[in-house]
Amino acid sequence: MLNFNFQNPTHIHFGVGQIEAISKEIPLNARVLVVYGGGSIKSNGVYQQVIDALGKHTWFEFSGIEPNPTYDTLMKAQDIIKAESIDYLLAVGGGSVIDGAKFIAAAALYEGNGEENDPWDILAKQKTFTKALPIGAVLTLPATGSESNGNAVVTRYGNKRPFKSPLVRPLFAVLDPSVTLSLSDRQISNGVVDAFIHTIEQYLTYSVNGKVQDRFSEGLLQTLIEEGPKALLPATKENLDVRSNIMWSATMALNGLIGAGVPQDWSTHMIGHELTGAFGIDHARTLSIVLPAVMKVRKEQKREKLLQYATRVWQITEGDDDARIDQAIRLTEEFFEKMQVPTRLSDVDLDSKDIDLLIERLQQNGLTALGEQGDITLEISREILTLAL
Amino acid sequence: MLNFNFQNPTHIHFGVGQIEAISKEIPLNARVLVVYGGGSIKSNGVYQQVIDALGKHTWFEFSGIEPNPTYDTLMKAQDIIKAESIDYLLAVGGGSVIDGAKFIAAAALYEGNGEENDPWDILAKQKTFTKALPIGAVLTLPATGSESNGNAVVTRYGNKRPFKSPLVRPLFAVLDPSVTLSLSDRQISNGVVDAFIHTIEQYLTYSVNGKVQDRFSEGLLQTLIEEGPKALLPATKENLDVRSNIMWSATMALNGLIGAGVPQDWSTHMIGHELTGAFGIDHARTLSIVLPAVMKVRKEQKREKLLQYATRVWQITEGDDDARIDQAIRLTEEFFEKMQVPTRLSDVDLDSKDIDLLIERLQQNGLTALGEQGDITLEISREILTLAL
Q1: DSSP state, residue B166
Q2: Looking at residue A214, which CATH number applies to its domain?
Q3: Nearest-CA residue of chain B relative to A250?
Q4: Residues of B in contact with A212 (CB under 8 A)
Q5: In this structure, are A104 and A195 located in the same domain?
Q6: Where is the Alcohol dehydrogenase iron-type/glycerol dehydrogenase GldA domain (chains A, B) (predicted)?
Q7: Which of B92, B161, B167 is nearest to B133 (CA)?
Q8: Burial of B356 (0-12, 13-18, 19+ CB in 10 A)
Q9: pLDDT tens digits, residue range B176-208?
Q10: A96 in the same domain as A196
């Protein structure tokens, strides 16, 4: 096991009816900005529950945060923050809204290096910051884990740019599984697949004998494999246990715990980001296209863990090592198909001539040494994308 | 899954050499009281590492906290706390030292209800408190999980009394697995068994379909079953991966995570506490005696989970339900035997005439409705103890 630091102070309120917990979590003298996306929280009743809970608070709202939130949209929130002396953000939505709130929180108090204070530097130059507005979150779409981590991704000029800081980790998060019942199949699919791949990226590397981390990851993968498809089937999609298990898995998949003390390989995400940036494909659907090809191209480097994955997650016991690995990859693809997401570039109408642009973008963004060993060069990324055709 | 609240802000510093992290975790202007037990931290080098790390701090020390720490010992620390205006506690030791520090921290700032302020009320009357000194922990014995939870057990008049509060949860905990190399086999055994049973008590109840919690628990149980015996075998006992996996399992077993959203059954601990109180048997050794009998007596109530335990933790696939459950219980006992702890009252020279005293003590302490359903009456506790003879 590698040395590690781990801390996750986000207070989780899990269960039906927990939205009312925000009334006690947010100080009564706070000036709250409720940030959200489109109008879905108004039609599904979440908005009403939130404003009921804020009955004694002073609050304002900022809406219109889009999927893959953009810098330009998020910077618009600064006007109301200044005008109304906002000192607390409540993000109500999925990963995009919560990620957006994180950037708004950091930008509001950003002082830069003393000479200039352009919050764009947080994304463009990975400048650190020492203050951010406190954030609470009401999660409506289990997927990214943003509700209890300090990570965010913001888009500008067609590029997705990540930043992270413990200062933007939500102080609390409400996870009410009944809220997810109004999600579309596509949203559920994308969320389950995103959480699955977050887990894989902290698991499918090389072994450091981190038995707790491995088994926790395997437990999340098994749970998502079992429960994900049920959330799409008419007979089981309304089942709150199914929704609960998916929601808690997605949070645990990226709250820092399973990745503490083990190597990580975020190449699928990095290559996937370019697919979203260049062609506007849903984040999760880029991942389900890239991951199987990463598994195949990196079979030797990931051999030991692929075998463990085959045995423990898929219970494959027959055949030689290569056959077991191949079957595990095939079952992974079948799981994605059950989740109704693409597994090939051709499924989203891309072909070999689109690969050059993706490689160019990886190069422009300096993503030339990906993977747990930093040895996924542009050439290997090209190999991965070619195999994903 | 049941509704739940979960928050665990303890900052974990895991790995060889991490003791130096305390120099940054404790504010430089703090007046620190280092609390510890006997002299073992002086002979194994931990004490020296701690005082090296506190080189720029103002610190004092209080030693002599015994296993199953007593109220009388702990209250002696109040003198130096007052005399030196201590405002930070650093607990260096195992669960007893950290539990002791928690009581010291609460007692130091205890104001009671305004009429009297006897810290004994925290234990005797379960009085709540609103302030406690901040605590950091350097863990030397993986077992109780006390390093990242808000629970403690203190003994007075021969009775073990628990209390809990988020105010006494350590702000940070250093987990350096190399520190555990100087432990005796008996300390390692006790620690592994304690962590194993903590996990069982949050797992072996009735199913609420909490798939993440179940799989995390199963992962901890499997890890402890695999790694525990290795820590006793000459060929593997010095292996740092073994020590790391045990140490991280023990912390995760009782930091609140696996028990969030699921029913719990602490009857083994409650009955075990009386065995320690009445006969001075090591805490973990009371648990290994009581648990198999609890499993047998509560077989019907725990049937579904016992079958899951048999299948997933022990990979038992042959035989009918009863046979699989019986085999899982037998394998649990064999695991305890490998860990060199007793599984019967007769192993610690107790017999049927000692049971009356234990039942009497359970009654005196109001422990007449134990278990996940509160239906383990004194009569059933007697049945459990009788089966444990």
Answers
A1: G
A2: 1.20.1090.10
A3: B212
A4: 219-220, 223, 245, 248-249, 252
A5: no
A6: 9-177
A7: B167
A8: exposed
A9: 999 999 999 999 999 999 999 999 999 999 999
A10: no
| Interface probe with A: pick from B2, B8, B10, B211, most Cβ of A within 10 Å | B211
Q: Do B215 and A227 touch (CB under 8 A)?
A: no
Whether A3 is in a domain gets the answer: no
**Which residues of A fall below an 8 Å CB-CB distance to B?**
1-18, 209-212, 214-216, 218-220, 222-223, 226-227, 241, 244-245, 248-249, 252, 257, 260-261
Q: Where residue B56 sits, what CATH number does that domain have? A: 3.40.50.1970
Compare all CA atoms of chain B with the CA of A10 and give the residue at the minimum distance: B7
ipTM value? 0.97
Minimum CA–CA partner of A219 in chain B: B215
Maximum CA extent, chain A = 67
Asked if B8 and A6 come within 8 Å (Cβ–Cβ), the reply is no
Among candidate residues A123, A154, A178, the one where a domain is terminated:
A178
Cβ atoms of A65 and A35 closer than 8 Å: yes
CB-CB under 8 Å, B8 with A9: yes
Residue B263 belongs to a domain: yes
Last residue of a domain, one of A178, A210, A242: A178
State whether B275 and B128 are in the same domain: no
Which residue type occupies B241?
D
Q: In which domain, by residue range, is A362 found? A: 184-387
pLDDT of B52-111, one tens digit each? Answer: 999 999 999 999 999 999 999 999 999 999 999 999 999 999 999 999 999 999 999 998
